[in-house]
Amino acid sequence: MVYNSLTEIPRNVKECFDWLIAVKGSSRFNTQALGFALHNFLVDMPVGLTRVPSLEMVKRFAKGFLEQKELKQEPHVTCLLAKYRSPMNKTDGMDMKRLFCYNESDYDNVVKSKNISRDEMASIVARVAGNCERFLKRIKTPAQYESAYSSEATWEASCALKPTECAAILVGIAPMLYAGLISLWISSNPELFGEEKSVKEKRLGRVMKILGFEEPGCREDLTRISVRQALVDMDKEIIERIYEIAGFWAFY
After folding, report:
1. CA-CA distances (angstroms) from residue 144 to 140, 220, 226?
2. 237-250: pLDDT as tens digits
3. Residue 7 belongs to a domain
4. Which of 59, 111, 127, 179 has an alpha carbon within 20 to 30 A of 197's alpha carbon?
């Protein structure tokens, strides 16, 4: 399926990448505008549970994606799904939770606590979009790759008049991006002692397919090593920023 508007919600990680690349377009001001809108969306969100109608729709698609058989047993996905299934307790023992929680943004508005400015948020969005584009360049078959978003799906046409709606989409798809990238890192790890290389490669192939990266759009000769090399820009720091964009302190 090809979408003609950026207000159409991505259904898998590949479509999330396509969405960000379509937002980016050919002007750096597009990711800047999305970053500013994202900052406005998150900066004043209190710790608790806030229901935003435009975000709730995106969350439903993301939850459905994470519930796929091949993903939902992974520890990092299980942890995410728990947040969708019942609201996080953000009233009891908050001092201890803030002290020992792995992700600060689960219980604090990190946009405020880290004093993230509008320009810094725009820079984060630009980095994520650029890194998605570089990853795709390394794994795709250019002549056969099809973006989920047509040339009509641009920031100017879809988001310029309603930037908050597009910011909500980015917030909602952030858990998909986070889970997908972690799964790619895990699946492209070296074989364990005694583990057959063919088993590892088949597992990686299944994960790639679930995330949306399939032939003929993606190279048929992809291996664990080539996928790991393609992930070089998706490091721990950028994955942490993606997690923070999800706004778990406010929406789950």
Report:
1. 8, 12, 19
2. 999 999 999 999 99
3. no
4. 179
